[in-house]
């Protein structure tokens, strides 16, 4: 082995001083021959005979030198270098071709590398600085209604943590937010509610101070301590080295800062950077719905587990299933029909991984299509050039180059191209690695964080793509050379025929592939476009037009509940009397926001749940005038009024689906339901609307009166035809008049909120559309190239046809029909593949069948127009053939 | 092995000398082209069995002299030994049948 390395190194070293070694060799052989001659002369031969005798016994001098050289260097590498040099020279000689080919490949490889880096950075390794992400899984609950994942309750989580033997550790990380006042501005920032073991479990020790102590996740708001992010520390606290022990007001409670997280750690939530962490005991400060750590029915926890080495997900899943069955038996009131499930990180149901997964999957398919089209295009270009180089190849073959040698040279030339393409592509990917986030609008002033990751896995994959590319496009001309018939190709090129067989089929095949791939992308664009339009035109159940909302955080500035109530009442009066304001109302949250709805088990008077069901319904706390302001119609009964306060009986408004499910045809008005041990009377039934996603099915939901629940209504909804800027200025004036220390957040229109919730579809449509357009262009260029080549090769036939009486329209039809036949073939192939592939779009499609005829039809129309355009010019040129000249030449 | 043996018994030598010597020793039974010697010399040099340096031959000519290294001597011993074993074995086989 050692000897092998030694030999290799010596041979490698010889490559760098070839000239000196060559002189050595010459001299050595010369002295050998001279000595032999001398000896022969001494033996008595004539000088002439002596020389020829010496030559004879030595053998061929040049052969010896050749054998010596092969032994001395590394012939493989030497020929490769030779080929590389030759390839570079060829590129320089036709810069137009080279630039076009390299651009195609840069686009293809770059798009792939960028999508790889997004998939790596968002789905597979989403949490920078967290150790061993491959052993992390997301843990959530399931229920009969929600097999796709629900949160867990804290007591359930503790039971899992205690009983799980296959997990190294389980930890909680639940997104929350707070307001930090910066000067006279209020700014939202995101943070996580975590279990005390969080920083140990993820293996990220705080840079300053400490993480949380074991007891700090117990007791209602008992441990107001926080770890802050590096960015927050640098920005808000100017990198204060004495930060530990200082305090900061977070959601109304004064927290002691006990630690600073290291640089480059952004928490564990796909889509947002976390800026602070608080223990779960502070949950009732940050979340609505009161203290939940002792309530098994309150499900709000999002958690992760780290599996022990060697434990598969299935094994862990089985253990979790056993534990959850035990919980079901022990606590039927809260856990009936509920299970626990694991997801790999990239399928995490409770952050943006789940939303982005289908988008990224679709994009992966799209970029692979684009790469194939780019390969086909470059292959076509190479092929055209290989016809031009036919003569060169024939000469090489004629003077004794092996086919294998020619193949190697052509593949090396392909490699040179794709290396340039890959270099450009990686540059593109590097620039685009954080570009995904640009497609998502900022929410409430906070920009999403969707980093791409260009690590060695992405680089390796891109290198593999580059090699495959080389093979794909280098192979085409290589195959072509192996069919060169020496005798005939040294003679003149024979004239071709339009639609003639032979060489043309390779190019036609490539165009066929291009057409079918771009057809697939067109179909995808059509489907996504249609579902976007469908979603946009679906009524969310409320009238978003003309509604604006903003948050006013009274807790952060230290208002007591009574004072907050007063402030809200006064502000509401002032806002309602502003000119142009039609109505206004407070609520805890707006529909379709990322703040999760409060959810709780309920008991309905007169409804006996079947076994396997523990009724749990989402709800929102809203103030008087909410339904009018949002434009949610009431089917019967009334909405909340100012009179519904803490002094009178508790009331609720339910939606139609809820009335249907729990009162089954009876009139729910006047009936009772129990929430957290208190009975509420139903006073109204509202029409169904969308609550957390535009695409959700009608789901049970109810509203309780804000004033009866003593909650801080964080959101002020205003219905007004005024522009947001005008409204914002007026609002800020009113708020300042009441308390100069308070600033409202940015005013957001509900319409914008509605559009944001369709951003995954929007992103998919944009990307697939743009890349589909590029693909269509490439395919059209390919088709044009093939047709004009065919026309230029068959002038003699065209001339003959004209001489025999064919007129322009005949020739036009002849050429066009050939091009359109090619397109039709591609479309058929593409349609077949598209039927199988569009199912991948999965939940990006909304109420649109993956086989939607409209999408296929419009893709066909677009393709047909492009094909007609691409074929027309060559066809027109065919009609301009001068028969006399064509026949004479 | 022939080259190693030659260098072992004759000391440093140039290519022509080695070729001549091999021809003499084998009594012209090995009628190889002398040229084929050079790639072989190079291979052994790359493996570290022999080294070369330029010198002046007995009749005042610049020539490249090859000499055996320690590794080369060891290699020669090993080969001689294995060759010996092999020929003993073949002899024994031939005698018994």
Written overview of the protein:
The complex is a heterodimer of chains A (889) and B (97). With 889 residues, chain A is α+β, with helices and mostly antiparallel strands. Chain A has five domains: 2-73, no CATH class; 74-130 and 357-494, no CATH class; 151-337, no CATH class; 504-540 and 757-889, no CATH class; 547-756, no CATH class. Chain A is built from 28 helices and 21 strands. In chain A, the strands form three sheets. In chain A, strands 1, 2, 3, 4, 5, 6, 7, 8, 9 and 10 form a ten-stranded mixed beta sheet that branches. The longest helix of chain A is centred in the middle third of the chain and has 37 residues, at 352-388. Chain A starts with a helix and ends with a helix. Mean pLDDT of chain A is 83; it is low at 492-501. With 97 residues, chain B is α+β, with helices and mostly antiparallel strands. Chain B has one domain: Arc Repressor Mutant, subunit A. Chain B is built from four helices and three strands. Chain B has helices spanning 2-10, 15-25, 37-46, 70-96, and strands at 13-14, 50-56, 62-68. In chain B, strands 1-3-2 form a three-stranded antiparallel beta sheet. In chain B, strand 2 and strand 3 form a beta hairpin. Chain B is globular and about 55 Å long. The model of chain B has no long low-confidence stretch (mean pLDDT 83). Chains A and B meet through helix 1, helix 2 and helix 4 of A and helix 2, helix 3 and strand 3 of B.
